[in-house]
Amino acid sequence: MTPFDAFFTIPFHEADQAQRARILSRLADTELFAALVTEPTGDKAELRVFPLDNGSVALACDAEDRLAGFMGGPVAYVALPGRVLAATLVNEHRGLLVNPGEPSEMLLDAPTLGWLVDALEAEPSLASDETPRQVRAPDLAVVSCLAEPISTRLGDMAGMVQSAALVAADWEDGRSNHVLMLKGVDESHRSAVAKAFAELMAFLPEIAGGVDLAFTSAMHPPVALVIDVPQPEAPQPAARRDPNAPPILRF
């Protein structure tokens, strides 16, 4: 089992639309090993293409040994994120076969890859500077939809985000929506973090009123659903050997 396999509680082609969208979101951030015709030359590589009844497809796996196992031996490959491979194949009007014979097997046609590429172009919706008229606990249906995906995305951001808080907000102009507040994000990381969450939301069912993103250094509201992010452990200093100790002899 690989981390990507863990997203497949049922086969991709038996999943509902929401489950498929989440899987495609994770595929975009997964490093894939795509089969090539021959070893790359400089910055040029030719994907190995397999003709199928509904069009030609490239082949990629999330581990080198899986790719070699399917091909029956060593094979030239290129390693790249799923999002880059998808964009390349969309330009060539080709599909993608992922992890054949594994729990995460997927056969994606060109239109599906096109939808994936379009979703990855989503721009963040940032909360305005105004103060909401009222902040409420998030709706249970929204929590059910967002809690797990947000937790997974935050797990990819250890060291960049301290915690997140989800609230419902009512505004002076009559609008109501939800706001995801991220605490402890350095200014230099905010653009990348906002883009990552914009992409995440693009793969989830539409939330009434939308979900705005806000960066904060303040305490989270008491009514918020708070998600703490495990922080990476500081590296342990190397043990220093006593200079007066006898030498260690190896034979």
Walk me through what this model shows.
- The structure is a single chain.
- The chain is an alpha+beta fold and 251 residues long.
- It has 2 domains: 5-119, Trna Endonuclease, Chain: A, domain 1, CATH 3.40.1350; 134-228, GMP Synthetase, Chain A, domain 3, CATH 3.30.300.
- Helix content is 27%, strand content 23%.
- It has helices spanning 17-28, 64-71, 82-91, 110-119, 140-155, 190-202, and strands at 31-35, 49-52, 55-61, 77-81, 95-98, 106-108, 134-136, 163-170, 176-183, 211-216, 225-228.
- The strands form 2 sheets. Strands 1, 2, 3, 4, 5 and 6 form a 6-stranded mixed β-sheet that branches.
- The longest helix has 16 residues, at 140-155.
- It is elongated and about 60 Å long.
- The model has no long low-confidence stretch (mean pLDDT 89).
Concise account of the structure shown:
The protein has 251 residues and is an alpha+beta fold.
Ordered list of secondary-structure elements with their pairings:
Layout: H1 17-28, E1 31-35, E2 49-52, E3 55-61, H2 64-71, E4 77-81, H3 82-91, E5 95-98, E6 106-108, H4 110-119, E7 134-136, H5 140-155, E8 163-170, E9 176-183, H6 190-202, E10 211-216, E11 225-228
Helix pairs in contact: 3-4
